[in-house]
Amino acid sequence: MNPGKKRRLERILKPDNCTVIIPMDHGVSSGPIRGIENMQETINRLIAGGADAIVLHKGIAKRVEAANAGLIVHLSAISNLSPNSQNKVQVCSVTEAVRIGADAVSVHVNVGAVDEDKMLTKLGKVADECDLLGMPLLAMMYPRGPKIANEHAVEPVAHAARIGAELGADIIKTNYTGDTESFRRVVETCSIPVVIAGGPKSETPMEVLQMVHDSLEAGCAGLSIGRNVFQHKNPTLMVKALVAIVHGKATVEQAAKILGETK
């Protein structure tokens, strides 16, 4: 591996080869939703909780301080106002991310979407640029499209994750399949670290803690969860609880105590 890529990747994946990533790229897709109105304030709370890395779009990344957290600049975008909101377009280059000071970049691909071909083409090109510049690549690989009946079913999730690994990503972010046994297949058939997405806002924080715990049992490398963290009533404590599970191997009950929750 390129030594520059290796050094940057170590800022995202900690010595236990796991990571707690908090994406906050929602301002493009969904607008200034609750929890990300004041980005610096939210980032400060996440860092206080021990987040390993945050995902931001380039404009925000230029204007905030991320302290000791890894900075992942997201290269893909489309708003939910678009008539074709599954077609993620590239809005930032790897070179621009280098100038901003990124520790990694991320690309979003909707596998199975009508414009999958365009997104895969961009993923392949970005992977090549990342290798040239020593930049780690997080590929957000989601099975979404006309032929996808269930975005959390093991076969399409495993397929989407494998595509990201095949095309040059260093870390895969994808949907959790709902149980440890099925998600183990996703992890074991992907040659690079896999982290889980948070999906829609969960009913309770306990659901998130349990999901993270169970995914780790399957061999997952951690998480990349946004709304279920930054929209929590206390984002700092939520991050601390997740860090306890991911890096401290805490049980769900132990992590819940950090939040003041009971199972």
Q: Provide mean pLDDT, rounded.
A: 96
Amino- and carboxy-terminal Cα gap: 43 Å
> SS-based structural class?
alpha/beta
How many DSSP-defined strands?
10
What fraction strand? 15-25%
Instruction: Indicate the radius of gyration in whole angstroms.
Output: 17 Å
CATH homologous superfamily annotation: Aldolase class I
> Can you tell me the overall shape?
globular
Order of helices and strands: HEHHEHEEEHEHEHEHEHEHHH
**Count of discrete alpha- or pi-helical segments spanning 4 or more residues:** 12
Any idea what the CATH architecture is? Alpha-Beta Barrel
Q: How many structural domains in the coordinates?
A: 1
| Main sheet: strands, sense, barrel | 8 strands, parallel, barrel
Could you please describe the fold and organization of this structure?
With 263 residues, the chain is an alpha/beta fold. The chain has a single domain (3-259), classed as Aldolase class I (TIM Barrel, Alpha-Beta Barrel), CATH 3.20.20. Helix content is 43%, strand content 17%. It has twelve helices and ten strands. It has helices at 3-12, 26-29, 39-49, 58-61, 94-100, 116-133, 154-166, 180-188, 205-217, 227-230, 235-246, 252-259, and strands spanning 19-23, 53-56, 70-74, 76-77, 89-90, 104-111, 137-143, 171-174, 194-197, 222-224. Strands 1-2-3-6-7-8-9-10 form an eight-stranded parallel beta barrel, surrounded by five helices. A two-stranded antiparallel sheet has the order 4-5. Helix 7 (154-166) runs parallel beside helix 8 (180-188). It is globular and about 45 Å long.
